[in-house]
From TrEMBL:
Residues 34-273 form the ABC transporter domain. Pfam families: ABC_tran (PF00005), oligo_HPY (PF08352). Coiled coil: none annotated. It comes from Streptomyces mauvecolor. SMART domains: AAA. Belongs to the ABC transporter superfamily. NCBIfam families: oligo_HPY, PRK11308.1. One of its GO terms (molecular function) is ATP binding. InterPro entries: AAA+_ATPase (IPR003593), ABC_transp_ATP-bind (IPR050319), ABC_transporter-like_ATP-bd (IPR003439), ABC_transporter-like_CS (IPR017871), Oligopep_ABC_C (IPR013563), P-loop_NTPase (IPR027417). This is ABC transporter ATP-binding protein. The keyword Nucleotide-binding applies. Residues 373-433 are annotated as: Disordered.
Length: 433
């Protein structure tokens, strides 16, 4: 089979300068139909992504966080056009790519790549590592300098693998090594936009820092733009310039890194931030409050009316049940969709908090400092411990003395001939004893 080369006429618009909008998403939706019955009629739909708006500037890193099932991975597949959107538009470098066909998307695949979450299912087990990483060159008709094999071996060394692994198969690698292979494949054609879906979740903690630093170095060298999806808020804080918080198919807050972590506005963001551990030995033993959200995340098949977070929010009022908040900019560079935001003026003052909202969370205080009575209590506890140790020592001495007396008695009986001789010539004790 001959792989067609890329046509010269299939060229996108001019490259976006650093700081200009590279990707623009408006009202993006993805509803998966639910069919049942003999005729497979649609009875409902799963609203995985239900109207999100954001943009990504050239050279920046946008982090996306949220609970499992909020639509992060689906959003990543939509902007790379691996899934067909139900509604909304996706513009890349000023060109609408929302409904491009296979032929129209082929030249754009060079500029937009994706690192998949599962390193086990994203690699073909029948192909070698060299064949997997060289596939983008063959599909796009690109021949790098020095040949494809030399370039693939260079990419393997860049992501921390041995170039001699060129002829090995995916089953011969660990999960972290397979993820590195996926990263090398995504970076093969020097793309402009890379969507990374949990790129370090399958790696050990010691390897995560290496991969994150690798992505940072490649971004500076190649001018890459990242959309990184992750659950680890510490990783997102380290690599992202701006962060989008998603909840049940919606973006509830979008802000730069410093503003979001210093003063989160949405109650859901505040609950997420309270669960982030602070790796500072100086703060060990200090009090901190953690907000525990009660109940499960509502089903995306029938999301709550109004604000989708009002069923688990401690600030929910009647307006939250009836009116859906709009994502608006309350502070420079910080957008939030909430009627009663934190660290900002109330958008619906005078509303009474719902009775069920007071029981929607539980605040737990962790890391309480040790009181002054603790040393006295410890000293009081040491006294019975010392008494028990002395008593145990006396008991052990008594037992040793009794064992010594028994042993001497047995030896005297053996020498006096009170035992009986067995068939093997050994002396056996009598049954009377």
């Amino acid at each position: 089979m001959t792989i067609p080369a890329q046509s010269k006429s299939a060229v996108l618009t001019k490259e976006a300068a650093p700081g200009e909008v590279l990707l623009k998403v408006s009202g993006l939706q993805k509803h998966f139909p639910i069919r049942s019955g003999l005729l497979k009629r649609q009875t409902g739909s799963v609203k995985a992504v239900d109207g999100i708006d954001f943009d990504v500037r050239s050279g920046e890193t946008l982090g996306v966080v949220g609970e499992s099932g909020c639509g992060k991975s689906t959003m990543g597949r939509l902007i790379t056009r691996l899934l067909e959107p139900t509604g909304g538009t996706v513009e890349f470098e000023g060109r609408d790519i929302t409904h491009l066909g296979v032929r129209g998307m082929r030249p754009m695949r060079r500029d937009v790549q994706m690192i998949f979450q599962d390193p086990y299912s994203s690699l073909n087990p029948r192909h070698t590592v060299g064949g997997i990483i060289s596939a983008p060159f063959k599909l796009q008709g690109v021949t790098p300098e020095g040949g494809i094999k030399k370039e693939v071996q260079r990419l393997l060394s860049v992501v921390g693998l041995n170039p001699e692994h060129y002829n090995r198969y995916p089953h011969e690698f660990s999960g972290g090594q397979r993820q590195r292979i996926g990263i090398a494949r995504a970076l093969a054609l020097n793309p402009k936009l890379v969507v990374a879906d949990e790129p370090v979740s399958a790696l050990d903690v010691s390897i995560q820092a290496q991969v994150v630093n690798l992505l940072d170095d490649l971004q500076q060298e190649l001018g890459l733009t990242y959309v990184i999806i992750a659950h680890d808020l510490s990783v997102i804080r380290h690599v992202s310039d701006r962060i989008a918080v998603m909840y049940l198919g919606k973006i509830v807050e979008l802000a730069d890194r410093k503003s979001l972590y210093a003063a989160p506005m949405h109650p859901y963001t505040k609950a997420l931030m309270s669960a982030v551990p602070v790796p500072d030995p100086k703060r060990r033993g200090m009090k901190s409050e953690r907000i525990l959200l009660k109940g499960d995340v509502p089903s995306p098949i029938s999301p709550p009316s109004g604000c989708r977070f009002h069923t688990r929010c401690w600030k929910a009022t009647e307006v939250c049940k009836t009116q859906e908040p709009v994502l608006v900019e309350l502070k420079p560079g910080q957008q939030v969709a909430c009627h009663h935001p934190e660290n900002a003026p109330d958008q619906a003052p005078g509303e009474a908090v719902l009775p069920e909202a007071r029981e929607s969370i539980e605040v737990v205080t962790i890391g309480e400092t040790v009181t002054a009575e603790a040393p006295a209590a410890s000293e009081a506890a040491e006294e019975p411990a010392v008494a028990e140790a002395a008593e145990a020592a006396e008991t052990s001495e008594a037992s040793e003395a009794s064992e010594a007396a028994t042993a001497s008695e047995a030896s005297s009986e053996a020498t006096s001939g009170e035992g009986e001789s067995g068939p093997d010539g050994t002396v056996q004790e009598s049954t009377d004893k």
